[in-house]
Design goal:
The protein has 609 residues and is α+β, with helices and mostly antiparallel strands. Helix content is 36%, strand content 23%. Among the domains are: 39-109 and 322-356 and 401-524, no CATH class; 276-309, no CATH class; 532-609, no CATH class. Helix 9 (335-359) runs antiparallel to helix 10 and helix 15 (533-546) runs antiparallel to helix 16 (555-567). The two termini are 63 Å apart.
Length: 609
C-alpha cells in the first residue's frame, strides 16, 4: 500500500478505518444479533412485540459443543535430517511451554464460544519486549479477541491477502501514558467510540485502534492512534530498531550533540562478538574467513566478524479460526444463524403457552342467592348450607387449556435445531437408553460427533497457525536460548533449549547465512496424555497384564509400567517409580534417575546411577 510521505497520516488511516467499518456495518449488526440471541433475547423478527417466555435452545446447543481440550502441538521438518528433526522437536517443546505459561485454558474457553456464536474467532500473536525473567528477555503474548473488534479490509476474505486490517480495544488514559510514553495533554485528546461506550459514560477509558498494513516492499507496518492522538507509527514493524541521533547519525550512546534528535533506524544484521555453541555440538564462529582471488589463485585471506541477518516475519499477527467454511466470508458460518428460525418459533410457542396459562383458572359456580363472598384465599370461606339445600347447587368451571400440543411442537422444533447442528441426545449426555453395552454406546457417541469433525479440523488448523507464529517470533527476537524440558521414553526428564542460531543455514552461493523456517505445523490428533489420561491408564495396565512389557512380576517390568503411567499423569505414579528404582538398586540391578537434567546428551539415553 503506497502512502505519500507528505500525507496527513492520522487523517489517512482514520478515513481508511471509517470506510472499512462502514463496509462492515451490516456484518457487525448481524454479529451483535447473534450474541443477543445467545444471551436469550426476547425480540421477535418482524414484530414489535416481545416474547413473554424464552427457552434458550441456542445457549444450550452451543454450550454442549464447547470443548476444553487444547490440541497438542506437532512439528515436522520439510527435509529430514538429524539436525532438522532435532530442531523440529525443539520447536514443538517451545510451543508446548508457551501454552503452559500463558492462560490458554481461558483463551480456549473464549475461543470456543466466539467461534460458535459469531462463526469464528480472532487471535492476536505479538512479541512482548517488556517481559524479563530468569535471564530471558521478551516473550510471545497470545490473546483471543472479540471478532467484532477486528475490522478487515473490505471484500478481502483471507488475512494473508489483505493490505491492511484494524484491531480496536478499550484501555485507560493512564495506560496510554505508560505504554506509549505520551503526555497527559496528548492522552486527553484520545477518545472512545460510541459502540464501546454501551450507553455508559466514562472519562477514563478510551478506544485504541491498531492498523497493520503493508508497504510497497511487502513489509508489515503498524499505525496506532486514539481520537486525535497518534500513539505509534512504525514502518517495518517486525524489523529490529536501533536508537540513533538523526542530527549526527551516530548511535544514541555515542552521540555528543548539544541538542540530539532521537530517531530509529532498521537493523538488518547482527555481528557476532563470540563463538556460539550449537545444540549438535558444532560451533558458529565469531569470524569468517574471506578470500581474495586473482586469476583463479588466492592472493589474500583475512578474517572479518561474522554477520547474520535478523529473521523478519512476513505475516500479519492475526489468526482466524472458522466455525465451518463459507464462500466469500472472512468468518465461518455461525450456529446462531442456523438456529435462529427454530429459536424464534420456540419463543412464540413458549409465549403462547404462557398466555394460555395466565388466562386459565378455576371459576366458582354458586346460586344467585348465595350468602358467601369469594376471594383467592385458600380455605378462607366456609359454606353453610340452608335446610333442604343441596351441595349440587355449587360447583366450578375449569378453564385450564390443553397445552400438550404446544409442548409437543416445542420439543419437535428443539429436535429440528439439534439435527441442524448435528447434536444428539447421546452427545449431550441425555440419552438414557437401557440394555446397551458400553461399547455400543461409545460407537453411537462417535457417530454423533462425526458431523462436528469439520469444526474440530478448523480448530486444529488455527492452533497450528498460532504455533507457526509463535515459532517465527522466537526465531526473530529470542536472543537468549530458552530453557525447555521433556520426558523421554525411559521416564527420564531432560534439559533442552531452543536456540535460534540452531536454525541458521549457510548459502555458499550467496556466501552468507539465512534462517531456515521450513517446518510443517499441525496438532497431535491423538490428543496426548492430557486428553486421553484414563484411556492410557487402562491400556498401560492391559499391556502389563498381557506381558508385552515383560514378566509382570519382575521389578524391572513393574518399573517400566509405572514409568508409562507417570508419563500419562497417573496419581502417585512418581512415588511408585522411585520405589521400584530403589528396589532394583538394592537388589544390585541397574537403575536410572527418575528426574535429572541431561546436558550434552542429544540421544536422550538414560544415565546409570
Amino acid at each position: 500500500m503506497f502512502i505519500d510521505r507528505h500525507t496527513d497520516r492520522l487523517s489517512f488511516f482514520a478515513d481508511l478505518y471509517e470506510n472499512a467499518k462502514n463496509s462492515l456495518a451490516e456484518v457487525l449488526d448481524t454479529l451483535r444479533m447473534h450474541y443477543e440471541q445467545y444471551k436469550g433475547s426476547d425480540l421477535i423478527d418482524g414484530s414489535t412485540e416481545r416474547a413473554q417466555a424464552v427457552r434458550n435452545i441456542t445457549y444450550e446447543i452451543i454450550e454442549s459443543q464447547v470443548n476444553s481440550d487444547i490440541p497438542a502441538p506437532k512439528v515436522d521438518a520439510k527435509r529430514y535430517s538429524i539436525r532438522h528433526d532435532r530442531n523440529a522437536a525443539a520447536v514443538e517443546r517451545l510451543c508446548a511451554k508457551v501454552r503452559n505459561e500463558l492462560p490458554f485454558e481461558e483463551h480456549n474457553d473464549m475461543d470456543e464460544r466466539y467461534t460458535y456464536i459469531y462463526g469464528g474467532s480472532v487471535w492476536l500473536v505479538e512479541w512482548d519486549s517488556s517481559y524479563s525473567e530468569a535471564g530471558e528477555r521478551g516473550r510471545v503474548r497470545v490473546e483471543c479477541i472479540n471478532p467484532r473488534d477486528f475490522i478487515p479490509q473490505p471484500n478481502i476474505y483471507r488475512v494473508e491477502d489483505m493490505e491492511y486490517c484494524f484491531i480496536r480495544f478499550v484501555t485507560t488514559r493512564d495506560e496510554l501514558c505508560r505504554k506509549y510514553g505520551i503526555t497527559r495533554e496528548a492522552a486527553a485528546l484520545a477518545a472512545t467510540e460510541q459502540e464501546d461506550l454501551g450507553g455508559r459514560h466514562d472519562e477514563d477509558t478510551v478506544t485504541v485502534v491498531l492498523c497493520y498494513w503493508r508497504n510497497q516492499a511487502g513489509e508489515v507496518c503498524r499505525f496506532v492512534w486514539s481520537g486525535e492522538t497518534v500513539l505509534a507509527d512504525i514502518e517495518g514493524f517486525y524489523k529490529r530498531k536501533r536508537c540513533i541521533c538523526t542530527a549526527c547519525g551516530s548511535s544514541a550512546e555515542a552521540c555528543r550533540c548539544e541538542k540530539p534528535k532521537r530517531g530509529f533506524e532498521d537493523e538488518g544484521y547482527e555481528t557476532l562478538s563470540h563463538d556460539v555453541l550449537l545444540d549438535d555440538g558444532s560451533i558458529l564462529p565469531a569470524t569468517t574467513t574471506v578470500y581474495e582471488n586473482e586469476g583463479g589463485a588466492v592472493t589474500r585471506a583475512y578474517e572479518i566478524p561474522t554477520r547474520i541477518p535478523y529473521y523478519v516475519p512476513r505475516r500479519f499477527p492475526v489468526v482466524i479460526r472458522k466455525n465451518t467454511s463459507c464462500d466469500k466470508q472472512l468468518l465461518g458460518q455461525s450456529d446462531c444463524e442456523f438456529l435462529r428460525p427454530q429459536q424464534q418459533q420456540i419463543n412464540k410457542v413458549e409465549s403462547r403457552i404462557m398466555q394460555k396459562l395466565m388466562r386459565s383458572g378455576i371459576t366458582p359456580l354458586v346460586p344467585e342467592d348465595a350468602t358467601i363472598t369469594l376471594n383467592n384465599a385458600i380455605f378462607g370461606q366456609v359454606i353453610r348450607l340452608r335446610p333442604g339445600e343441596s351441595a349440587a347447587s355449587y360447583g366450578t368451571v375449569d378453564t385450564t387449556p390443553n397445552i400438550s400440543q404446544d409442548i409437543a411442537q416445542g420439543e419437535r422444533l428443539y429436535e429440528h435445531a439439534k439435527r441442524t447442528i448435528g447434536i444428539s441426545d447421546a452427545y449431550q449426555g441425555l440419552d438414557t437408553a437401557k440394555n446397551e453395552s458400553g461399547y455400543s454406546r461409545q460407537i453411537r457417541l462417535q457417530q454423533a460427533a462425526g458431523r462436528l469433525e469439520s469444526k474440530r479440523r478448523m480448530k486444529y488448523s488455527a492452533y497450528a497457525e498460532i504455533d507457526r507464529m509463535i515459532f517465527e517470533h522466537y526465531l526473530a527476537y529470542a536472543d537468549e536460548p530458552r530453557v525447555l524440558s521433556y520426558t523421554d521414553c525411559f521416564g527420564v526428564r531432560h534439559r533442552a533449549t531452543f536456540n535460534r542460531y540452531d536454525f541458521l543455514e549457510y548459502d555458499p552461493t550467496a556466501n552468507g547465512y539465512y534462517y531456515d523456517d521450513g517446518y510443517l505445523f499441525s496438532v497431535d490428533l491423538s490428543g496426548g496424555p492430557e486428553q486421553q489420561r484414563e484411556d492410557m491408564w487402562e491400556k498401560n495396565l492391559k499391556n502389563l497384564q498381557a506381558g508385552t512389557l515383560g514378566d509382570p512380576t519382575a521389578p524391572a517390568t513393574l518399573l517400566r509400567y509405572w514409568q508409562n503411567q507417570e508419563r500419562a499423569h497417573y496419581p502417585y505414579a512418581r512415588e511408585n517409580v522411585a520405589y521400584f528404582m530403589d528396589l532394583i538398586k538394592r537388589k544390585g540391578g541397574a537403575s536410572y534417575e527418575c528426574e535429572q537434567e541431561q546436558e550434552g546428551n542429544p540421544g536422550g539415553l538414560p544415565q546409570p546411577v
